[in-house]
Amino acid sequence: MSRLLKKYLICYDISIDRKRRKVENILKDYGVRVQLSVFECLISSRDLIKLSEEFINITPYLSKADSIRIYEQCTHCERSFKSFGNDNGIRKLYKNGHIVI
After folding, report:
1. Fewer Cβ in 10 A, N or C end of the chain?
2. Is 59 helix (H, G, I), strand (E, B) or coil?
3. What is the pLDDT of residue 101?
4. Could you give the CA distance from residue 67 to residue 5 in angstroms, rounded to a whole number?
5. Which residues contact 51 (CB under 8 A, 6 or more apart)?
6. According to the model, what pLDDT value does residue 80 have?
7. CB 23, CB 12: distance < 8 Å
8. Alpha-carbon distance 55 to 22, whole Å?
9. What is d(CA 59, CA 94) in angstroms, rounded to the nearest whole number?
10. Does the structural domain 6-99 have CATH classification 3.30.1490.20?
11. Where are the alpha helices (DSSP H) in 2-100?
12. 32-70: b or e for each residue (b if 16 or more CB lie within 10 Å)?
């Protein structure tokens, strides 16, 4: 599998606090929180598979109203990105498609 990194926007709407914290804790290992229920993740296809498997494992415990969505952000989408207000420092973290530590 490719080690090429791609950016994904991952959003979730989960009603029960304990279950929502579980999703948050999973996502903290893969990306950066940019809003309350939204993470940006710069990950490989291998990590995307691992992350998806973690979500699949918890899906049976979610209610019918709960959801987790993963959106791939193409290069064009990244260039046309706009942020208003506090962007949680995400522009400092990602520069030229790389994570800056």
Report:
1. C
2. helix
3. 41
4. 25
5. 10, 26, 27, 30, 41, 43, 70
6. 72
7. yes
8. 10
9. 30
10. no
11. 17-28, 45-58, 75-79, 90-93
12. bebeebbbbbbbeeebbeebeebbeeeeeebeeebebee
> Would strands 32-35 and 38-43 be described as parallel, antiparallel, or unpaired?
antiparallel
Query: What do you get for the CA distance between the two ends of the chain, in Å?
Result: 25
Task: Express each pLDDT in 32-90 by its tens digit.
Answer: 999 999 999 999 999 999 999 999 999 999 999 999 999 999 877 767 767 777 665 55
Which residue's structure tokens are 């999973």? 26
Per-domain residue ranges for the chain? 6-99
**CB of 83 closer than 8 Å to CB of 90:** yes
> What is residue 72's predicted lDDT score, i.e. its pLDDT?
93
